[in-house]
TrEMBL record, chain A:
InterPro entries: ATP_synth_F0_asu, ATP_synth_F0_asu_AS, ATP_synth_F0_asu_bact/mt, F0_ATP_A_sf. Component of the ATP synthase complex composed at least of ATP5F1A/subunit alpha, ATP5F1B/subunit beta, ATP5MC1/subunit c (homooctomer), MT-ATP6/subunit a, MT-ATP8/subunit 8, ATP5ME/subunit e, ATP5MF/subunit f, ATP5MG/subunit g, ATP5MK/subunit k, ATP5MJ/subunit j, ATP5F1C/subunit gamma, ATP5F1D/subunit delta, ATP5F1E/subunit epsilon, ATP5PF/subunit F6, ATP5PB/subunit b, ATP5PD/subunit d, ATP5PO/subunit OSCP. It is a multi-pass membrane protein. The chain crosses the membrane at residues 6-31, 67-86, 98-117, 137-158, 189-222. The gene is ATP6. This is ATP synthase subunit a. It is found in: Mitochondrion inner membrane. Coiled coil: none annotated. GO terms for cellular component: mitochondrial inner membrane; proton-transporting ATP synthase complex. One of its GO terms (biological process) is proton motive force-driven ATP synthesis. CDD domains: ATP-synt_Fo_a_6 (cd00310). PANTHER family: ATP SYNTHASE SUBUNIT A.
TrEMBL record, chain B:
It is a single-pass membrane protein. It comes from Equus caballus (Horse). The gene is ATP5MF. The chain crosses the membrane at residues 64-82. InterPro entries: F1F0-ATPsyn_F_prd. Subunit f, of the mitochondrial membrane ATP synthase complex (F(1)F(0) ATP synthase or Complex V) that produces ATP from ADP in the presence of a proton gradient across the membrane which is generated by electron transport complexes of the respiratory chain. ATP synthase complex consist of a soluble F(1) head domain - the catalytic core - and a membrane F(1) domain - the membrane proton channel. These two domains are linked by a central stalk rotating inside the F(1) region and a stationary peripheral stalk. Belongs to the ATPase F chain family. Component of the ATP synthase complex composed at least of ATP5F1A/subunit alpha, ATP5F1B/subunit beta, ATP5MC1/subunit c (homooctomer), MT-ATP6/subunit a, MT-ATP8/subunit 8, ATP5ME/subunit e, ATP5MF/subunit f, ATP5MG/subunit g, ATP5MK/subunit k, ATP5MJ/subunit j, ATP5F1C/subunit gamma, ATP5F1D/subunit delta, ATP5F1E/subunit epsilon, ATP5PF/subunit F6, ATP5PB/subunit b, ATP5PD/subunit d, ATP5PO/subunit OSCP. One of its GO terms (biological process) is proton transmembrane transport. The keyword Transcription regulation does not apply. This is ATP synthase F(0) complex subunit f, mitochondrial. Its main location: mitochondrion.
Amino acid sequence: MNENLFASFATPTMMGLPIVILIIMFPSILFPSPNRLINNRLISIQQWLVQLTSKQMMAIHNNKGQTWTLMLMSLILFIGSTNLLGLLPHSFTPTTQLSMNLGMAIPLWAGTVFMGFRHKTKAALAHFLPQGTPIFLIPMLVIIETISLFIQPVALAVRLTANITAGHLLMHLIGGTTLALMSISPSTALITFIILILLTILEFAVAMIQAYVFTLLVSLYLHDNT
Amino acid sequence: MASVVCVFSSSFSVPLKEKKLMEVKLGELPSWILMRDFTPKGIAGAFQRGYYRYYNKYINVKKGSVAGISMVLAAYVLFNYCRSYKELKHERRRKYH
């Protein structure tokens, strides 16, 4: 069972072909693009959701920050749909791979930092020193602020990876427990089954919340730097 | 793929390449399959036709329902099951695996 526990996180290849690319591109099929003024029911629902999310998320930014709307909206749609699709049985979740999350987090964070240094150099550098610190603490505090700046992309990526991976692992384990307990004592199996149901509801929430948190933090870094 | 539908089938004969699948006789089936377009462009065209056939029937309708999306998700689950069958078959309840 130990080997099977982590087999679902292995990169999927079929006869040597990396079909992980197909699996990453699959959620894009589920979002048809609107091409009329009044669309059919499914596209209208999708449009309403995207407009709701974008208004809520981009309201805090100024004009310069709002040029990032497309990027942030596609980010939250991608992470949300990928996480939710990973809750289907036997499916592979690309966001459990640290490589992919780092590939998303580092360029976005670096984009916000470079934008801040380019347009508001003095203000961006001033972030390294909070107001009103005693003079003899300044060198140490600058070092600490630099470290906390550079840890931001790593924290973004690792947060997403760890949350989704831990959720999937827990579901595997508790499901295996329920199955093993069914022959020994059905009442205990029932309790573990209820725990499994509650965990699945939590996982649905976590899937969407993690997408939101990722995008929110990127937009926060953007807000600091525009 | 355009298919020539002839009303007077006794007097005119349709070339094998242009028949639809349901009109191909059983003996002609292997040669019909071999005559299909297997170039990358042909395969891409087949995928595109299949996608739009499904899309226009279930999604691009005035009142689409949950059935349209859930069929896609069920096919996705099936695809992933087939992909990981090799590891899954060791988890069956059998005495000898």
